[in-house]
Write a structure and sequence with these properties.
- It is a single chain.
- By secondary structure, the protein is of the alpha+beta class.
- The protein folds into two domains: about 140 residues; about 150 residues, Jelly Rolls, CATH 2.60.120.380.
- It contains eight helices and twelve strands.
- α3 packs antiparallel against α4, α4 runs antiparallel to α5 and α6 packs across α8.
- The radius of gyration is 21 Å and the shape is globular.
- The two termini are about 30 Å apart.
């Protein structure tokens, strides 16, 4: 997944009126398609997002530049669909999806109009009721907030869901560390790629100098990387010794793990000198639903 694709995705979701903003207000159908495409992206419903993007491209209101931007964005969506990526924490999505919760008890006339327009254009309907169920389900399951762990130096940790053997999540880190957890299977060869999407002024540097660490369920260091591609980091095809929970730590240069003589994490020393926003892609895993895990890993 290249950096320019993620920058375009983040730009779309951070400023809904950015690309195609002037065209989207020209007609109700185009505005509806744009809003529904945002919803589909936030739900990782790539097939529906591709359909909506294709329908928007047919609008005569789009300039040649905006149409080309939409073509590029649709290509990215098609790749996400082919790879069956699960993307969590997309910027702007929490606020976008939350607005539907207020409309669930009393659907209004505009919502009914939206549904009629969707039927007219042959586009699948994502009703607020369906959205509310998914949002509430994720919140009840605790999937949207970092959770405490048994290892203080790896707490809290945010779960990366991998029901298809891969997952993507967004983050931001500066002086501290960000911890993510996933479930892996014995013999899996996991690859973790950190792709910087935005560089902000850090404590000492303004660059994309990241670091990655992989720990097992007991906090033992399995792998680390700094400067795999330029200053960005990647853990490539790391063999997992057993089935269970694993922890990924993302930080910036200058923040290092303190380890016991046998390699178990005790804490962190130093502080990161840079400040980055990024996406973390995890691939090469057995789909989480197919794993027979030890009791301690079933959380």
């Amino acid at each position: 997944m290249t950096r320019h694709v993620w920058l375009s995705l983040s730009a779309l979701l951070l400023s809904w009126g950015g690309v195609w903003g002037s065209a989207a207000v020209a007609t109700v159908p185009l505005a509806t398609l744009q809003r529904q495409m945002k919803t589909a992206v936030c739900l990782n419903d790539w097939a529906t997002a591709v359909d909506r993007a294709s329908a928007m491209m047919a609008s005569p209101s789009l300039s040649a530049q905006d149409r080309q931007a939409l073509v590029d964005f649709r290509h990215a969506l098609q790749r996400y669909e082919e790879e069956r990526l699960e993307i969590q924490g997309i910027p702007g999505c929490e606020a976008h999806l939350a607005q539907y919760l207020e409309t669930v008890p009393t659907p209004s006339l505009p919502l009914q109009l939206d549904r009629a327009l969707l039927r007219f254009f042959g586009i699948p309907d994502l009703t607020p009721d369906q959205l509310a169920q998914q949002i509430n389900g994720a919140r009840r399951a605790g999937l949207s907030e970092p959770q405490p762990t048994d290892i203080p130096a790896l707490s809290p940790a945010l779960l990366v869901g991998t029901p298809r053997g891969s997952g993507v999540i967004a983050g931001a880190v500066s002086a501290g560390v960000e911890v993510f957890t996933f479930v892996g299977g014995q013999g899996d060869r996991v690859t973790v790629n950190l792709n910087v999407t935005r560089i902000l002024p850090g404590l000492r540097y303004t660059d994309d100098d990241s670091q990655l660490y992989l720990f097992d369920s007991q906090g033992y260091l399995l792998a680390s990387n700094d400067d795999f591609n330029g200053l960005q980091s990647r853990l490539d095809s790391i063999l997992l010794p057993s089935s269970g929970l694993y922890y990924i730590v993302a930080t910036t240069y200058g923040n290092s793990p303190q380890l016991s003589p046998d390699g178990q994490l005790l804490g962190w020393s130093g502080d990161g000198g840079s400040f980055i926003e990024y996406t973390l892609t995890v691939t090469g895993l057995t789909p989480s639903g197919q794993l027979a895990l030890p009791t301690t890993a079933q959380r």
